[in-house]
Amino acid sequence: MHQADDERPDAVLLAALREGELEAAGSLFRRHAEPLRRAAGAWVRQPAERDDLVAETFARVLAVVRAGGGPHGELRPYLVVTMRHLVSRWSSQRNRVELRATVPDAGLDTGGADELALHRSNVRLVWSAYRTLPGRWRTVLWRTAAEGGTPTEVAPLLGLTPNSVAALAMRAREGLRQAYLQVQVPDAEEPVCREPRRRMGAWVRGALPPRRASVIADHVAGCRACRAVARGLDEANRELPGSAARLTG
Description:
Layout: H1 10-18, H2 23-40, H3 47-66, H4 76-91, H5 113-131, H6 135-146, H7 151-158, H8 162-182, H9 191-198, H10 200-204, H11 210-222, H12 224-238
Helix pairs in contact: 1-2, 2-3, 2-4, 3-4, 3-8, 5-8, 6-8, 7-8, 11-12
């Protein structure tokens, strides 16, 4: 990435992102991530939860921008409004997905056996998703989320700058969310469904380039089986809590 990228106004970077310049997303993240973390402190106390909230906010906003929508001028007000909506949604959810070393048998605050079974199922899904991630993503997630390391503390371990660690952690958290959805996609019985389902988790998250996303959307519109899968993933994505990318235990 050129240093000049960071000096371009938000409007220019957003326009570049809409045109497919993915490096512009990194410039926007580096510009706004720290102020957004400070804003997140008004709603959540734990550093890992703030990082999750920032990562999810960026992921959702940048997905809208890549699809041609979203802000065309200053980005930060749009980010803050999106974050506020996410906080409101997450605070109303009872089901939290956590990644633990083992599935807990006791001490879980649930309303009964059904909720305990659901929690265990979610834990297994997140672990399955975590194992599909590239090694560098697993490492940065574990160092920052499970062990609570700050980007400054983790940077020497990975041979990166603190800003690069923060950006890598954001990509890893988004990767985990996509993988969490993808591991819930059943194998396709029809050959024509195999390729669309292979990237359906990323598609639901709005993370695919427009052309590839359009191919999957066209297939889903004409395939009853894949449409049912997509509806299930869309529901899972809407209920995806901020702690989905947090490792504990």
